Amino acid sequence: MKKETYNTYMLECIELAKAALSKGNPPVGALLVFEDQIIGKGIESGKSSGDITQHAEILAVKDALANGYRDVLDQSVMFTTHEPCIMCSYLIRHHKIPKLVFGVSVPFVGGQSSEFKILETENVPKWGKKPEIETGILQHECEILNEQFAEYLSQQK
After folding, report:
1. Of 57, 120, 122, 141, which one is the catalytic site residue?
2. Which of 35, 58, 56 is nearest to 45 (CA)?
3. Which of 12, 17, 42, 45 could form a disulfide with 60 if both were Cys (CB 3.0 to 4.6 A apart)?
4. pLDDT at 49 over 90
5. Is 57 tagged catalytic?
6. 124 to each of 69, 96, 99, 127, 149, how far by Cα in Å?
7. How buried is residue 37: exposed, middle or buried, by Cβ count under 10 Å (0-12/13-18/19+)?
8. For residue 2, what are the contacts with CB-CB under 8 A and spacing of at least 6?
9. pTM given for the model
């Protein structure tokens, strides 16, 4: 996959993140792409649904599975506005998704930037090699969404 196409997929993730934000959720959108075809989409909905497992990355994988793409997850690229959290990172490693592209880091609970480096470890034998990770793709646009979410939260108090 060419790096020039990263922005196209990230812009779609940002649109999904805007949909999440419109329902009071953190602005996270995720896609799974196999051979330049979107095979799964996820819109963060943990807050609005009350189900903490409804993270965008998990929903993108579930969508790909529902669409019959189980056998190609280990050849796909995940795009997401935010660094996957520890929970989503486990899912990525379990399915051996080999490449991850995201906009902004999530330092306290991120699977790469936090102290819980689920995306980095190669100590779990069944997980195999760690995924290739590209960060900072459309970072500014993702940060703007975070600012909008912070503003929304401050108005809820």
Report:
1. 57
2. 56
3. 42
4. yes
5. yes
6. 24, 12, 18, 6, 35
7. exposed
8. none
9. 0.96
φ, ψ for residue 50, nearest 5 deg? 80, 5
**What does the H/E/C string look like for 3-45?**
HHHHHHHHHHHHHHHHHHHHCCCCCCEEEEEECCEEEEEEECC
> Is-contact 83 57, C-beta < 8 A?
no
Tokens of 96: 């051996």
Which tokens sit at 65?
A: 């599975």
| Percent of the chain whose predicted confidence (pLDDT) is above 90 | 96
- The model's confidence at residue 138, banded by pLDDT at 50, 70 and 90, is very high
- Quote the crossing angle between the two packed helices 6-22 and 139-156, to the nearest 10°: 10
Instruction: Tell me the C-alpha distance between 40 and 109, whole Å.
Output: 24
Mean pLDDT, to the nearest integer, of 15-20? 98
| CB contact burial 127-157 (16+ within 10 A = b; e otherwise) | beebbebeeebbeebbeebbeebeeeeeeee
| Count, residues in the chain | 157
Mapping DSSP to helix (H, G, I), strand (E, B) and coil, where does residue 78 land? strand
What are the backbone dihedrals phi and psi of residue 32, each rounded to the nearest 5 degrees, phi first?
A: -115, 130
For the segment 101-127, what is each residue's pLDDT rounded down to a tens digit?
Answer: 999 999 999 999 999 999 999 999 999
